[in-house]
Specification:
By secondary structure, the chain is mainly β. The protein is elongated and about 65 Å long. Helices cover about 10% and strands about 40% of the residues. The strands form two sheets. The protein has a 20-stranded parallel β-sheet that branches. It has an eleven-stranded parallel β-sheet with strand order 4-7-9-11-14-17-20-23-26-29-31. The chain has one domain: Pectate Lyase C-like. It is built from five helices and 31 strands. Strand 1 (about 25), helix 2 (about 30-40) and strand 2 (about 50) form a beta-alpha-beta unit.
Length: about 375
Amino acid sequence: MSIKPKLILPFVLFYSLICGAQVIAIENSPDIQEKLQEALILAKPGDTIRLAEGFYSFSDGLSLDVDEVKVVGAGMDKTVLSFAEQESGAQGLLVTSSKVILKDFAIEDAKGDALKVIGADGIYMINIRTEWTGGPKSTNGAYGLYPVESKDVLIDGCVAIGASDAGIYVGQSENIIVRNSRAHYNVAGIEIENSYYADVYDNVASHNTGGILVFDLPDLPQQGGHHVRVFRNKAVDNDTDNFAPEGNIVGEVPRGTGIIIQANSDVEVFDNDISGNATVNLSIVTYSAETDDENYYPHPKSIQVHGNRFGNGGFDPDVDKAIAGILYELSEGNMPDIFWDGILPLTQMIFGQPDEEKLVLSDNGEASFMALRPIKYMLFPSPM
């Protein structure tokens, strides 16, 4: 299998071609809510909004709907946009424009999602921190960095802490790079969902419920996620109890899962360090819930896992979650490093899977592997 994600377009050149661009300097003041929102509304393509060092407090969400704008702070620990007193708005910052650069600031304690981007053609988040400072709670916002329905997405050098769904989430998007970033104490650390052509590399996902998730879900405008590469990451010590609000799909992720691949095709996982995950280091699973979406394909296919370094895992499985409980019982408590649920379309379970769609494992050291045999358990639900 050859995976060749498309290249993200350079994200600086278009600024150098815009004449008359201005730098709009913003400093903290009692009227910062109105001052910053006005700057975001009145900015022209090519402008830079420069936020001085400081702790900025907001009672309402902010929004940007102008293309080719840069919003730049003094550093993710120096320019802090706090929404702890937020009374209205579903996000901290909502971006609905394209070719936008967001750099060097933090968003803390948003009432909903911290930084949401919808429908962008070019969105670049660099050295951004999103955090809920009270620790993992189901009342925290769902997403930290949250671009959806976008193209040419770059998340570089970012930090996401405390999201009740996913710290770094890219959904229904295309041409994606997530790199050099850290995700801690989220339900899902880094999640690529229903997306095409994504590279996830040189990241650290630790102390989440699940470290790195590659999901595809039904009933969404874009589905059939494919061509995702996960490499040179550390998915280690994911040990936080699942604190997602009841009813969320991610609420089914067992505490202590390193990497999960669900219902995607052409996924390559290589050169990662995967260890210290209390339930299982790596899971490859089918989407098992019922759906009326006739166009949805729930089975992972063409998955390669090679050249990874696996360490201790499965030492304290979250047996209260269905899949972990089943795996614990079938493995007699000897949890594998790599688990595949073995579920295929019925015709493939009977006649075999095409070679190009088969799971390929190689050069993963001493990693243990377990696959279920669904036909066996369908025919003999209580095997001897």
